[in-house]
Amino acid sequence: MSGQQSGPRPHPEARASAGSLVCRATGERFPLDAPIWRSPAGGLLDIDWPGRLDPANLDPADRSLWRYAPAIALAPGADRITLGEGLTPMVPARLRGIDVLVKQEGLFPTGSYKDRGATVLMTQAARLGVRRVVEDSSGNAGTSIATYAARAGISADVFVPATTSPGKLVQIRSAGARLHRVPGDRQATSDAVWEAAQSCYYASHSWNPFFFEGTKTFAFEVCEQLGWRAPASVMIPTGNGTLLIGAWLGFSALARWGLIDRVPRLIAVQAERCAPLLRAWRLGLHEPADIVPEPTLGEGIAIARPVRGSQCLQAVRQTGGEVLGVSEEEIVSGLRETMAAGFFCEPTCAAAVAALPKLSLADDGPIVVPLTGHGLKAADTIGKLLG
Ligand SMILES: Cc1ncc(COP(=O)(O)O)c(C=O)c1O
User: Which residue out of 110, 242, 305, 323 has the highest number of ligand 1 atoms within 8 Å of its CB and is therefore the one to mutate?
Assistant: First the structure.
C-alpha cells in the first residue's frame, strides 16, 4: 500500500493488545481493531488507551506529530499514512490589543489542522484493510480525508455543501476523491452522507474517534513548544468541536501524566449566525440548543447540530472556559487585522481572533490562538472582502 512508512523504532501501538473503543451510550467495549465507527447500539465511541508520553523519549529526528505516537491509540500495526504533518510554528503577535501566541495551523500539507485527524484516522483505516471511505465536511476535513486516502490508496467519496469555497473543491477533486456537492445547508450534507455511511467505513471527523486521536496532538505540540508548560487559555473556532475536544483530551492527558500543572481554559468560539453551543451555554444547557442556522463567513464552524455537542460543552465547562459568539462584522475586522499582521488565514479562523476582546478571563498566562486554515483556501472570498 502506498504512502506507508515504518517508524524509526517499534512503537507501543504495534504490539499493544490493550486499549479499547467504548460506547458512550452503553459503556460496552470493543477491540481497537474493530472495523466500526460507532457502536452497534448506534452510540458515539470514545477511546480508552493506556499509552502515555515521556518527553525524554521523544525522537528528535521525527519532526512530525508522529513523534507523539506512544500516546496515539491505533489498531496494531507499524505502518503510517503520513505526509510529514505537524509541529506547526507558534509565534507571538499582538491582535485586538492583546498579546497572544499564534499557532499556524494553516501550515499543514492540505492547509488546515484537519490533517492532524486525517493522518491518524486514515492510518487506522489502512490497518483495518478498509478499501473505501465516505466523509462529509464543510470542505477542510473532506480535503484532508481525500488527500490521506489518496496517500493510502483508499478510495474516497466526499460530500460537501454546494456553497463550499471553490479552492477546497479543487483540492478534494485533485486528490482523486469522488466529490458530491449537496444543495442546502451543512446539515443537508450530513444527512446525505448518512445513507452511504451505513455500508462502508465512515471516516467522519465528528463520529470517528480516531480523528480525535490526531487532533489531540495539538495540545502536545503547544506544551512542548512552551517547554512542557500549559498556556492559560486557548481560543478555538468551534463547529463540530474536533479541535476543541482533541485539545481537551490532549491537555487532560498531559495533566494526568504530571507533565503540565493545569489544563488551559478552552474557549469555544462560534459565529452568532450558527451558534447552538453559544445558545446552550447562555441557557445553562448540557446539550446543543435548537437553532435556525443562517449563512456565515465562518463556513468551517457553521454546524447547527454538532454530533459531539455535549462533549464540547463539557470540555469548556470542565476547563473553566467559556463559549463566545462573534458577528459577521467582527469576523471581517478580525480577519483584516490578522492578515495585516502577516497571517493569511481563512475567515473561519478569524472568529477566534475576533473573540479576543470578549474574553472575561484573568490575565494569568499565554493565550494561544490557532489559525486553523490557510487563506489560499478562501482567496476568492477574501479578495471580495478586501474590495
Ligand atoms: C478552518 C477551520 N477552522 C475550524 C473548524 C472547526 O472545526 P470543527 O467543526 O471540528 O469544530 C473548521 C471545520 O471545518 C475549519 O475548516
Answer: 242
- Report CA(56)–ligand 1 centroid distance (Å): 33
* 187-199 burial code (b ≥16 CB/10 A, e <16): bebbebbeebbee
Statement: the pTM of the whole predicted model exceeds 0.85: yes
> Does the Cβ of 311 fall within 6 Å of ligand 1?
no
Burial 290-303 (b: 16+ CB within 10 A, else e): ebebeebbbbbbbb
Q: How far apart are the first and last CA of the chain?
A: 47
- Ligand 1 pocket, 347 CB below 6 A? no
Would the CB of 145 count as within 6 Å of ligand 1? no
Which grid cell sits at 325? 459568539
Residues in the chain: 387
Supply the residue whose CA is at minimum distance from atom 5 of ligand 1: 300
CA dihedral for 241, 133, 140, 109, sign (positive or negative): positive
Is the beta carbon of 117 within 6 A of some atom in ligand 1? Answer: no
Rounded distance, CA 346 to CA 325, Å? Answer: 18
What gap in Å lies between CA 169 and CA 4, rounded to an integer?
26
Residue 71, judged by CB atoms within 10 A of its CB (0-12, 13-18, 19+), counts as buried
Nearest CA to ligand 1 atom 3: 372
What separation in Å is there between the alpha carbon of 18 and the centre of ligand 1? 31
What torsion do the CA atoms of 263, 238, 361, 355 make, to the nearest 10 degrees? 150
* Structural domains of the chain in order of their starting residue, each with its CATH number: 90-113+210-377 (3.40.50.1100), 114-206 (3.40.50.1100)
Ligand 1 in contact with 141 (CB < 6 A)?
yes
75 lines ligand 1 (CB under 6 A): no
191-228 pLDDT, tens digit each:
999 988 988 899 999 999 999 999 999 999 999 999 99
Q: Where are the alpha helices (DSSP H) in 139-208?
A: 140-152, 166-174, 186-197
pLDDT per residue over 1-36, tens digit each?
A: 333 433 333 333 433 447 999 999 999 999 999 999
